[in-house]
Amino acid sequence: MIKNVIFDIGRVLIGFEWMDYIHKLFDEETGQKVTDALWKTHYWWELDRAVLSVEEILEMFYSVEPEYKDEIREAFDRVGECMTRCEYAIPWIEEMKERGYKVYYLSNYSEHLMQANPDVLDFLPHMDGGVFSCYVQLIKPDPEIYRTLMDKYDLKAEECVFIDDREDNVVAARELGMQAIRFENYEQAKAELENALLHTPEV
Length: 203
Description:
This protein is of the alpha/beta class. It is 50% helix and 14% strand.
């Protein structure tokens, strides 16, 4: 029986349209260099893991494209501008809760992003809890971060359905015994969630 719905946040409950954002800041060549510095490596994941300082991680970004240090810093400092509210987030969460399900989040997320645009997280008070990677120094798809969430709220994997936009995170959830859905868009994910819930009585 499914009792719990667990959401990723980035590109699931909030929009994170990087390329639209970067094209507003820079020309195509500069935008690509900045994108390479911030996303070509796994350095951004270290921001989510929050073991190193922000300044240490910035130096890692700069090392990829040292001639674009100022532009990298600008894009980093203004990153909140590429994050947008999803109007469906709160209604979707509230619908699940009204039907008796507990609703949680499990997200690779940094304090920098929280501070850059806190308004996009206005759905958090509507949820029953969750885990941000930066507070536990673990990131998906490490199984330990899923276990951290389950231990914190005494959840059983077989009673959870997890929704995430990354296939590796979805696979990790399934390997732990959860049902899991790869988020492509709201309509698709909501339909797949409803299908999953149809096979279990509502709580």
